[in-house]
Amino acid sequence: MFWQQYYLHDWMEKYNIQHEAWGPLAQHRLKEIIENPIVKEIAENYGKTPAQIALRQQVQRGIVVIPKSTHKDRMKQNLDVFDFELTEDEMTRLKQLDENKSMWAEYDDPMIVQYAMSEE
Question: Which numeric CATH code is attached to 6-117?
Answer without folding.
Answer: 3.20.20.100
